[in-house]
UniProtKB/TrEMBL annotation:
GO terms for biological process: alternative respiration. Gene3D superfamilies: Alternative oxidase. InterPro entries: AOX, AOX_sf. It comes from Umbelopsis ramanniana AG. Belongs to the alternative oxidase family. GO terms for cellular component: membrane; mitochondrion; respiratory chain complex. It holds the Pfam family AOX. This is Alternative oxidase.
């Protein structure tokens, strides 16, 4: 039993604490409910300064693959079908850490296979919410490392940020095709909480292992999108018109269908697969300056591409 003075102090403390706890709880539950319900109503804000407005207006997500980014013509179904993405490409695990990464990813695949089965749209949404994490975590940790070491990063940050943005664009595209229910939104919240923290800690310990895990995750993404295509081809999923956001992002022809979008997204996943396996190899070799290597390679090959020969820091 507390003495009277202490009890009074405790009650006073609780009274002053209670409104704070109440406000915090409302904020927490408010933000949780906004995640479950989707975006809130808009509130007016102060006018946006010119420099910020111009910078925001001129910032657009740019595709990663040259077929989409550098092509002045609209991309046709034929062009999409002929893209060489190394379908079925697989990094054979030989070292212990590679085998660990491979087994872990195969184990993780059981969850979506069991839960989503043939719900390809929802599986794609879930996949993209996870796939957009490694690039951001890797870029953040490379950024912090560059600050600590007070040296250039060697090329990882910009690529990994671009990968994260590319994955987020995949998500934005699929969100035009379905709206996840509250339960699936809660699932995304939980999966992100677990995966972000696990990948963050893992990247601190072994970037090589984490890039290998990301490489195998991308191999699985290519397989999942191939199953999505099969379902469309068999008529199990209707081949609807592609959402406008996908036409604009990939520069697709105006009559493009969801099938075309799946082919384009799968091509991106193949690029992420190759990039992450390459990065894992680069970390194994301890030569972690990609820019120097690109310059050297371009000079050796006598490349006419000035961007490759310069490869500025
Ligand atoms: Fe993706
Ligand atoms: Fe990916």
């Amino acid at each position: 039993m507390l003495p009277a003075v202490s009890r009074n102090a405790a009650f006073t403390g609780m009274r002053t604490l209670s409104p704070h706890i109440a406000r915090t709880s409302v904020r927490c539950f408010g933000s949780l409910s906004s995640v479950l319900r989707g975006p809130n109503e808009m509130r007016p804000i102060a006018s946006i300064p010119d420099d910020i407005a111009r910078e925001l207006a001129n910032s657009h997500p740019v595709p990663m693959r040259h077929e989409f980014a550098d092509n002045p013509q609209k991309i046709t179904t034929d062009v999409l079908e002929k893209m060489d993405i190394g379908l079925g490409s697989h990094h054979v695990p030989t070292s212990f850490s590679d085998k660990l990464a491979f087994r872990l990813v195969k184990l993780l695949r059981i969850l979506p296979d069991t839960y989503f089965r043939d719900d390809h749209y929802m599986r794609s949404v879930m996949l993209e919410t996870i796939a957009a994490v490694p690039g951001m975590v890797g870029a953040m940790q490379r950024h912090l490392r560059s600050l600590r070491k007070m040296t250039h990063d060697g090329g990882f940050i910009s690529h990994l940020l671009h990968e994260a943005e590319n994955e987020r664009m995949h998500l934005m595209i699929w969100m035009k095709c379905l709206q996840p229910n509250a339960w699936n939104r809660l699932l995304v919240l939980g999966a992100q909480g677990v995966f972000f923290n696990a990948y963050f800690l893992g990247y601190m310990i072994s970037p090589r292992l984490c890039h290998r895990i990301a490489g195998y995750l991308e191999e699985e993404a290519v397989i999942s999108y191939t199953h999505f295509l099969d379902a469309i081809d068999k008529g199990i999923i209707e081949n609807k018109k592609a959402p406008q956001i996908a036409l604009e992002y990939y520069n697709l022809h105006p009559e493009a269908s969801v099938r075309d979008v799946v082919v384009a997204v799968r091509a991106d996943e193949a690029l992420h697969r190759d990039a992450n396996h390459l990065f894992s190899d680069v970390f194994s070799s301890k030569q972690v300056n990609l820019r120097d290597q690109i310059k050297e390679q371009a000079e050796k090959q006598g490349s006419a591409d000035e961007a490759l020969r310069e490869c500025a820091k």
